[in-house]
């Protein structure tokens, strides 16, 4: 442990310099829509910790070979030195000329983890192995092999703290393949953002009562919401759906039928939560949107300056949550 | 410590492959080590494989500590130390085995791989034979493949991929290895001194001789040294390679008066001892020049033909009072030296009475019958040379046998041999003859060394093996000095004239010494061995013998004699190597261009547009793309329209390919501006 501490202190100036250089380079990374090619001069390369250890090992072996004047030992040492240099070129070449594109980004709720998808494209005819994508100075990186003239979708996870647009920061595409002695990387920033919905409030609060036009729109679409009568048993109906109460009387199984309610619509309204502050209101509205969608209700959303007509479905839910996410931002 | 995750976890197949590589690296070591080390490492490896296959838990910390301590104690008990070449290597191998007990992650592989590389190096301290090139190559590829696998998280790569990539990398590293091997400035070693047990252990003749010592060496086909004669080689019966001179006798065994390094450590001009002063010799006749390449035998003595010229000794050698050639350092590595010898000589004609007496000394209570015989000859009035003749005639005329398997002899070894068994090998004859001479009052001593040597006609040099070990006598006659007398020649003249294989019955000979009545296959084996020996000699000379001197010699010849030029040449070579490697890696990483010219030009155009901030959407066809570009950048609209039209014509109508390509190129050009 103490040796580690000593090493850390000794290496501190190097690390400090490294961080300064990284910061300098990262500040100059252009934010681009992509695809971003990675040409030769944009690939940086440095030895890894194992690389330094390997160099030290080679030095020790060279000294041993000199001490024993042992020519086979010299040959082995020189082969290892050569191998190290070959590895450097391989690692560098493993990253050069990849092309990085922005992939789709699924919206998340605040407090969840957003995943930025990045497509790393290999335009060469040679397979590339173990290309990683990760945030700077994070230990976690996602890694994939790149098939010739194809791409791999890699995900960059980041915790989404606040609602609104979460832009992707500078990230690194890197590789240590084949020998793990060198770390080659490049910094990139793609024009991609993740929409972060407000964090839904804890469930419990009842939504405002439905207002409007009961029974008017009762449809005949089968669903699970409302009891609509009995029908004859057909093969394939689950036993749970059988109406057992009527069985002794009718002497044949009847099946319960439900239908979706399309007959209620209600408004989720900003102004109905006067006791809460703005963020809490948005949270509560987000919760109600989720609950209403879960109950297959038709709902509308009223925010100051925004009005979304009642409807249902994933697109509608996204529109409502997006309006909540971007409210006053 | 970071937690093990699926990403860092070492896959089972990777582990098994790593164990195979480990076995490859360690196997040649195990043949040299005590069996318990092999058993321990093998059981650790097998246990680790089973633990992985059957999901056994890895051992707890205390057990690992216990095993480590036990290994240190066992090494110390076996070797008497824990450092040095043999014990250190054994320890390294055991640590490699113990590392397996805690190997669970891919980064543990890095430690094992580093240890593997170092284990390979230690192998060369024991053996640098030509097959070690294969070992070097196979292990480098295997270990590199293991390393490749370790730096590939997730699903393990197939061994075909890793081995091929590892092999390609090793091949690419070879040119740099060669450049460094030849050009890296060599310094004369050792830097800090070799451990006392450096080098491989070998058998050979020693400075004591009791019955059975030499005949046991005959079984060994190990090479003692090789000789190249510059000029005509002396005949077989003149090739006596002088080694230790033994002059003290205890009734059974002959010993040298001084240990080899006494001559260097205890040498003090003020307390001048005769034994430490080179004996005086007058040399005559045609000088024989030769170059000896000696295998390490971890002793002081060097071998030279009777008798070497004291003015032309190897640099670190000197002569003793017994005219034995001694090296200052123990010969731990292969040694080459030049010497000049003269077949005719007068050695030490003026021996002091004190020395004469010491060369006549015998234990009083041993071998009474032999002493009585010698005294009887004297009583008959024979002079010195008549006594010598009488003794040789005894061996020649009585029924003495020359055999590798003499009966065992008791306390009075010479008596038993001369009067009872009469079957013996050269040490019996030399010993008995010398005792008879001393009994008759003639100063006499035993010389051990080698006699003869076999010509390797492929390489035109002589190979002297342990099986050529021999012992003979020297007697001192007033005015004539020390004279070599070989009593074995009296009983088995073929031994000296034509070699051991002619002097012994075929049944007694070890297989490698048989020369007559060979089957075609045996003859083929013999010829292959001769050729192989030559290859080995060339290997030793040009590869293993490459040192600071031969480097200087070689580089001077191509005009790089200066140290500075050497470094410049090396830098240039490494630079060229790096440049070529870079080119190669760029070539394989370059963007694949489609064969179709139209598609190629279209790709180039989209790249240009992407750099202007208008990349083609993956879901967008050429027409839509062109429309969008035209909308967003009206200045490019015309070129874009032309580009799309030509591209669609070339790709989908297929007529007029030449014109379409020209139009595409023109559109691309105007997009660029």
What does this structure look like?
- Chain A is α+β, with helices and mostly antiparallel strands.
- Chain A has helices at 2-27, 49-68, 71-95, 247-250, 278-294, 314-325, and strands at 31-32, 36-37, 44-47, 99-105, 108-109, 113-122, 128-134, 142-146, 150-159, 164-167, 171-175, 182-190, 193-197, 222-232, 254-259, 265-269, 298-303, 306-311.
- In chain A, strands 1, 3, 7, 8, 11 and 12 form a 6-stranded mixed sheet that branches. In chain A, strands 2-4-6-9 form a 4-stranded antiparallel sheet, with no helix packed on it.
- Chain A is elongated and about 105 Å long.
- The model of chain A is unreliable at 213-220 (pLDDT under 50).
- Chain B has 673 residues and is an alpha+beta fold.
- Chain B is 50% helix and 13% strand.
- Chain B contains 24 helices and 19 strands.
- A 5-stranded antiparallel sheet of chain B has the order 11-7-2-17-16. Chain B has a 5-stranded antiparallel sheet with strand order 8-3-15-18-19. In chain B, strands 1-5-4 form a 3-stranded antiparallel sheet, with no helix packed on it.
- In chain B, strand 4 and strand 5 form a beta hairpin.
- The longest helix of chain B has 27 residues, at 563-589.
- Chain B is elongated and about 135 Å long.
- The two termini of chain B are 57 Å apart.
- In chain B, 37% of the residues are buried.
- At the A-B interface, helix 2, helix 3 and strand 8 of A face helix 5, helix 6, helix 7 and helix 20 of B.
List the helices and strands and how they pair.
The complex is a heterodimer of chains A (329) and B (673).
Chain A lengths: L1 H26 L3 E2 L3 E2 L6 E4 L1 H20 L2 H25 L3 E7 L2 E2 L3 E10 L5 E7 L7 E5 L3 E10 L4 E4 L3 E5 L6 E9 L2 E5 L24 E11 L14 H4 L3 E6 L5 E5 L8 H17 L3 E6 L2 E6 L2 H12 L4
Parallel strand pairs in A: 1-12, 5-13, 16-17
Antiparallel strand pairs in A: 2-4, 3-12, 4-6, 6-9, 7-8, 7-11, 10-13, 11-12, 14-15, 17-18
Helix pairs in contact in A: 2-3, 5-6
Chain B lengths: L11 H19 L4 H20 L6 H19 L5 H15 L6 H21 L5 H19 L8 H25 L24 E2 L3 H5 L5 E8 L9 E7 L1 E2 L4 E2 L6 H4 L15 E4 L3 E7 L9 E2 L11 E3 L5 E3 L7 E7 L2 E4 L5 H6 L9 H12 L4 H14 L3 E2 L10 H9 L1 E2 L1 H14 L4 E8 L2 E3 L4 E5 L3 E9 L3 E5 L1 H5 L1 H5 L2 H4 L16 H25 L3 H10 L5 H27 L7 H15 L10 H11 L4 H17 L3 H16 L1
Parallel strand pairs in B: 13-14
Antiparallel strand pairs in B: 1-5, 2-7, 2-17, 3-8, 3-15, 4-5, 6-12, 7-11, 9-10, 15-18, 16-17, 18-19
């Amino acid at each position: 442990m103490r040796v580690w501490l000593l090493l850390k202190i000794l290496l501190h100036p190097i690390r400090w310099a490294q961080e300064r250089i990284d910061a300098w380079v990262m500040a100059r990374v252009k934010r681009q829509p992509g695809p971003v090619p990675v040409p030769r001069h944009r690939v940086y390369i440095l030895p890894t910790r194992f690389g330094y250890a390997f160099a030290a090992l080679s030095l020790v072996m060279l000294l041993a070979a000199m001490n024993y004047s042992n020519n086979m030992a010299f040959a082995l040492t020189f082969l290892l030195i050569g191998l190290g240099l070959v590895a450097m070129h391989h690692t560098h070449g493993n990253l050069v000329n990849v092309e990085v594109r922005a992939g789709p980004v699924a919206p998340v709720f605040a407090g969840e983890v957003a995943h930025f998808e990045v497509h790393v494209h290999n335009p060469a005819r040679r397979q590339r192995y173990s290309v990683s994508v990760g945030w700077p100075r994070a230990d976690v990186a996602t890694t994939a092999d790149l098939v010739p003239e194809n791409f791999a979708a890699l995900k960059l996870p980041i915790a989404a703290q606040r609602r609104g647009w979460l832009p992707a920061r500078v990230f690194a595409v890197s590789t240590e393949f084949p020998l793990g002695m060198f770390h080659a990387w490049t910094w990139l920033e793609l024009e991609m953002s993740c929409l972060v919905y407000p964090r839904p409030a804890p469930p419990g609060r009842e939504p405002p009562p439905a207002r409007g036009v009961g029974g008017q729109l009762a449809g005949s679409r089968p669903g699970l919401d409302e009891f609509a009568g009995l029908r004859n048993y057909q093969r394939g109906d689950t036993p749970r759906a059988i109406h057992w109460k009527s069985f002794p009387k009718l002497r044949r199984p009847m099946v319960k039928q439900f239908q979706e309610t399309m007959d209620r619509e209600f408004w989720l309204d900003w102004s109905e939560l006067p006791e809460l502050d703005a963020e809490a209101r948005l949270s509560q509205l987000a919760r109600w949107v989720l609950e209403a969608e879960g109950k297959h209700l038709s709902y509308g959303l009223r925010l100051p300056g925004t009005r979304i007509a009642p409807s249902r479905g994933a697109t509608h839910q996204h529109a409502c949550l997006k309006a909540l996410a971007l409210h006053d931002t | 410590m970071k937690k093990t995750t699926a990403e860092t976890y070492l896959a089972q197949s990777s582990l098994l492959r790593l164990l195979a590589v480990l076995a490859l690296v360690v196997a040649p070591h195990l043949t040299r080590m005590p069996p318990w080390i092999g058993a321990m490492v093998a059981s650790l490896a097998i246990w680790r494989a089973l633990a992985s296959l059957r999901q056994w838990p890895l051992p707890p910390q205390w057990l690992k500590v216990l095993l480590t301590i036990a290994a240190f104690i066992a090494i110390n008990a076996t070797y008497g130390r824990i450092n040095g070449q043999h014990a250190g290597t054994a320890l390294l191998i055991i640590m490699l085995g113990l590392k397996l007990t805690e190997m669970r992650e891919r980064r543990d592989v890095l430690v094992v791989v580093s240890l593997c590389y170092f284990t390979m190096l230690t192998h060369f301290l024991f053996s640098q034979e030509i097959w070690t090139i294969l070992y070097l190559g196979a292990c480098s590829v295997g270990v590199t493949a293991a390393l490749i696998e370790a730096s590939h998280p997730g699903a393990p790569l197939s061994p075909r991929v890793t081995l091929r990539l590892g092999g390609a990398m090793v091949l690419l590293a070879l040119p740099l290895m060669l450049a460094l091997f030849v050009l890296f400035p060599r310094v004369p070693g050792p830097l800090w001194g070799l451990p006392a047990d450096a080098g491989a252990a070998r058998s050979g003749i020693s400075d004591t001789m009791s019955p059975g010592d030499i005949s046991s060496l005959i079984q060994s086909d190990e090479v003692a040294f090789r000789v190249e004669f510059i000029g005509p080689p002396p005949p077989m019966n003149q090739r006596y390679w002088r080694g230790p001179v033994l002059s003290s006798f205890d009734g059974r065994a002959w010993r040298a008066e001084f240990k080899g390094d006494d001559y260097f450590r205890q040498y003090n001009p003020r307390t001048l001892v005769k034994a430490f002063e080179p004996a005086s010799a007058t040399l005559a006749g045609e000088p024989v020049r030769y170059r000896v390449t000696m295998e390490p035998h971890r002793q002081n003595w060097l071998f030279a033909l009777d008798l070497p010229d004291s003015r032309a000794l190897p640099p670190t050698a000197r002569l003793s009072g017994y005219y034995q050639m001694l090296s200052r350092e123990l010969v731990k590595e292969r040694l080459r030296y030049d010497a000049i010898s003269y077949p005719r000589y007068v050695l030490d004609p003026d021996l002091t009475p004190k020395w004469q007496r010491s060369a006549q000394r015998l234990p009083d209570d041993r071998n009474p019958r032999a002493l009585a015989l010698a005294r009887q000859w004297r009583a008959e009035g024979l002079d010195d040379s008549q006594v010598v003749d009488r003794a040789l005639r005894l061996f020649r005329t009585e029924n003495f046998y020359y055999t590798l398997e003499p009966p065992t002899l008791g306390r009075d070894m010479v008596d038993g041999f001369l009067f009872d068994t009469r079957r013996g090998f050269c040490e019996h004859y030399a010993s008995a003859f010398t005792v008879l001479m001393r009994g008759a009052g003639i100063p006499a001593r035993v010389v051990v060394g080698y006699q003869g040597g076999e010509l390797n006609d492929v390489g035109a040099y002589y190979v002297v093996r342990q099986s050529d070990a021999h012992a003979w006598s020297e007697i001192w006659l007033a005015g004539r000095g020390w004279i070599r007398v070989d009593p074995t020649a009296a009983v088995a003249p073929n031994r000296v004239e034509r070699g051991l294989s002619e002097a012994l019955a075929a049944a007694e000979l070890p297989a490698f010494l048989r020369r007559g009545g060979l089957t075609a296959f045996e003859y083929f084996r013999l010829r292959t061995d001769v050729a192989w020996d030559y290859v080995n000699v060339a290997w030793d000379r040009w590869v293993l013998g490459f040192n600071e001197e031969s480097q200087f010699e070689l580089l001077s010849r191509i005009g790089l004699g200066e140290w500075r030029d050497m470094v410049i040449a090396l830098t240039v070579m490494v630079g060229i190597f790096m440049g070529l490697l870079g080119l190669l890696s760029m070539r394989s990483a370059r963007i694949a261009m489609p064969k179709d010219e139209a598609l190629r030009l279209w790709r180039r155009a989209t790249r240009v547009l992407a750099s202007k901030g208008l990349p083609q959407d993956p879901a967008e066809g050429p027409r839509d793309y062109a429309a969008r570009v035209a909308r967003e950048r009206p200045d490019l609209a015309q070129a874009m329209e032309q580009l799309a039209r030509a591209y669609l014509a070339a790709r989908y109508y297929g007529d007029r390919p030449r014109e379409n390509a020209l139009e595409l190129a023109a559109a691309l050009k105007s997009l660029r501006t």
